[in-house]
């Protein structure tokens, strides 16, 4: 089992959590990740010297990690909104778009595709009690879709990995403290843990050396990669591939 460098705080975590996520379960999860989300790669670089150093960089994630994006431009300040948007493309590569008909067509015959002033950042930055607004957590869809497409985010009908990203931004009845960030968009321990998994533990970045025949081999997460190296003539080269 991988040592992730943290321990369960018994004061805030119920004993049943430890019973559920015990060492045997964690070992099985790690084994399943190794078997199903990774693959072996082998390439022959004909234009390199024996023992040349090759940089291996994982550029994307083939596995989808997502959240809803219901609070798009609604967090009250430009800085909070900027931090929120930065998560899509760095932490999350999939987003749930808020297609809910009751709030999508507030007025009969006028679906909220393009959005109006009430959907803008300027509007939400002046609202003192956003939770009381009819379209809270229901931004107009076109601006959200355009944003996601510009960042290469997969558009999805329901979430995977996380639901409410920001504390106190959920629907009525949902926990107010289950976010990755506080209401002021300050990261919580849960964000650091998830980010470390997605952008460190679950990414393959390493240096390898070619063998006597110019072969490069490694095992990594299924994804898009770049190999960078210097050829026999001293030229910097790179090749991209999907594993």
Please describe what this structure looks like.
There is one protein chain. The protein has 243 residues and is an alpha/beta fold. The protein is built from 7 helices and 9 strands. The model has no long low-confidence stretch (mean pLDDT 91). The two termini are 25 Å apart. It has a 4-stranded antiparallel β-sheet with strand order 6-2-8-9, with no helix packed on it. The chain has a 3-stranded parallel β-sheet with strand order 3-4-5, covered by helices on one side. The radius of gyration is 22 Å and the shape is globular. Helix content is 25%, strand content 19%. The chain has 2 domains: 15-61 and 202-242, Immunoglobulin-like, CATH 2.60.40; 73-186, no CATH class.
Rg on CA atoms, Å: 22 Å
Unreliably modeled segments: none
Mean pLDDT, all residues:
91
- Give the termini distance in whole angstroms: 25 Å
Widest sheet, order of strands: 6-2-8-9
Principal-axes shape call: globular
How much β-strand is present in the residues?
15-25%
């Amino acid at each position: 089992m991988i040592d992730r460098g943290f321990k369960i705080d018994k004061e805030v975590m119920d004993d049943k959590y430890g019973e559920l996520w015990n060492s045997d379960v964690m070992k099985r999860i790690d084994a399943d990740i190794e078997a199903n989300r990774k693959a072996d790669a082998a390439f022959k670089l004909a234009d390199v010297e024996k023992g040349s150093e090759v940089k291996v960089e994982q550029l994307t994630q083939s596995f989808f990690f997502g959240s809803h994006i219901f609070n798009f431009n609604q967090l009250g300040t430009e800085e909070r909104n900027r931090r929120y948007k930065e998560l899509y493309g760095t932490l999350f590569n999939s987003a749930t778009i808020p297609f809910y008909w009751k709030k999508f067509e507030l007025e009969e015959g006028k679906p909220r595709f393009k959005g109006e002033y009430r959907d803008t950042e300027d509007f939400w930055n002046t609202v003192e009690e956003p939770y009381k607004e009819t379209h809270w957590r229901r931004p107009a869809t076109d601006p959200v879709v355009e944003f996601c497409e510009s960042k290469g985010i997969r558009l999805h009908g329901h979430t995977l990995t996380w639901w409410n990203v920001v504390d106190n931004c959920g629907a009525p009845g949902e926990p107010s403290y289950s976010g990755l960030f506080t209401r002021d968009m300050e990261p919580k321990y849960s964000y650091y843990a998830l980010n470390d998994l997605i952008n460190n533990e679950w990414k393959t970045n390493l240096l390898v050396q070619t063998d006597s025949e110019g072969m490069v081999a490694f095992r990594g997460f299924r994804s898009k990669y770049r190999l960078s190296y210097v050829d026999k003539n001293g030229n910097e080269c790179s090749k991209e591939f999907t594993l």
